[in-house]
Amino acid sequence: MTDADPAAGPLAGLRVAITRAAEQSRELTEGLESLGATVVSVPSIHITDPADGGAALARAVERLHDYEWLVITSPNGARRFCEALGDRDVPESTKVAAIGPGTADQLAQGHVKVVLVPSRHVAESLLASFPD
To answer: Counting beta carbons within 10 angstroms of the beta carbon of residue 106, is it exposed (0 to 12), middle (13 to 18) or buried (19 or more)?
Structure first.
């Protein structure tokens, strides 16, 4: 607890570290600051373009018909996948799993049908959720 003035916001006097990539933390930072928090940006990842310019992803997209499952583990990965997919569809024979609702939402924006999202949004839960 703090002795902060409640009129300054419910988070006044608190310091909050945000570990998201810097280019993806603006909305969260603004929201916390509007509640009175002091925000410290400590990005734990930096998102860059792949060294091959996306060639490996493009090759994998061309071979989707070879896979029974496609597992996407982040909204950033989902966005990149949808960009590489373009206006094509995922083959009917390939089922798509997403690690969580944010990833599933990003895929839905790219018109990719997700058939599996685990109840807990961690890799272990995704693995346990796969059908036999």
So the answer is: buried
